Amino acid sequence: MDLELLQRTVAELHQPSYRTRQVWRWAAQGADGYAAMTDLPLELRSALRERVPFSSLTVRHLAHASDGTVKALMDTADRRPLEAVMMSYRDNRRSLCLSSQSGCPLTCTFCATGQMRFGRNLTASEILDQALHFRRMGAVDHAVFMGMGEPMMNLDAVLQACEHLPDVGISARHTAISTVGWIPGIDRLTEQPLPIRLALSLHAPDEALRSQLMPVNDRYPLADVLAACRRFYERKRRMVFVEYVMLAGVNDSVGQARGLADMLDPRMFKVNLIPYNPTGSPYDASGPRAIEAFRAELESRGVGATVRLTRGRDIDAACGQLAAARA
Ligand code: SAH
Fold first, then answer.
1. CB neighbours of 130 closer than 8 A, spacing ≥ 6?
2. Which residue from 42, 63, 69, 108 could staple onto 312, CB 3.0 to 4.6 Å apart?
3. Is 283 in the pocket of ligand 1 (CB under 6 A)?
4. What is the reported pTM?
5. Quick check: is 319 catalytic?
6. For 32-74, what is each residue's pLDDT tens digit?
């Protein structure tokens, strides 16, 4: 829902401004339309229905995985595609994977979104509407900006959405922004007050290999990115999550684990190893044994490391598989 349009419309209809808050409260708590907002006058509900679309997104396709993961392929009003995912865990946690852009301007060679055409930045409403879509299915409490796009290249809209996410049930502490290492964005996140988590897609323990996998490394080299992450930690006192996608024979040797451990201060960084989801790229996924050996090497050097659970693989909703190719 476009909150600015809502506010403007409420004013134009000569309604008190608290009506805006009322509508938003209903929407944030999972109402599925204006009709449900029983403490609003009927005429106001129908006027709003005419003038303020209940969602800025239309769902084009919903996919349900056997593990309970749900993926939604949605379109913006100007028909830009995006995808968002909801994961349910046994402890009742419900986590959303949100997109910040339609497509992505960066060209990481292993990533499905990186191979599709960049559309545009999403607005704060379009980001919130992804969350509202899933909120209508039940309570949600965590969010990660690990869907399509590079959130740090659209940080104004991302932060604006983050300010409203607590109303939907997702506090800033339970929200993480994942970045390729876009330094101006990391610095801004360091300076602003919301306690949002930072995750860094690192993927290679040396500059040359990282540039090969992630061309953005030429612009923001790993050494400078890690320095920005250290500044984030010093200011926020919150650990930075390092994401490391495991590519067979490329970045998954024990020697490379050692190299990675050497560059990470264990007080500041925790590593999350991501089993690669093949997306038609030239890369293959590392096997479970290679992943375990890599993890054990990091741990033996004092760096905390976990292996990410793969969710929603059977519906192409897993990490890095989001690419709305049906556009
Ligand atoms: N642009 C941001 C947000 C996207 S997050 C970033 O890169 O951090 C998506 C995460 O999934 C990133 O860590 C990305 O490197 C990883 N990823 C991309 N393609 C993948 C794939 N095919 N399999 C597993 N992880 C992948």
1. 57, 72, 74, 82, 84, 96, 98, 99, 147
2. 69
3. no
4. 0.95
5. yes
6. 999 999 999 999 999 999 999 999 999 999 999 988 899 999 9
> 28-33 contacts: CB < 8 A, separation 24 or more?
28/132, 28/135, 28/164, 28/167, 28/168, 29/135, 30/132, 30/135, 30/136, 30/138, 31/136, 32/136
**pLDDT tens track for 102-143:** 999 999 999 988 888 899 999 999 999 999 999 999 999 999
Residue 16, φ and ψ in degrees, nearest 5: -60, 150
| pLDDT greater than 80 at residue 318 | no
CA-nearest residue for atom 8, ligand 1, is 179
CA angle 74, 27, 325 (to 5 degrees): 5
**Active site annotation includes 297:** no
Is residue 122 lining ligand 1, measured as CB closer than 6 Å?
A: no
Indicate which residue of 83, 126, 150, 243 is catalytic: 83
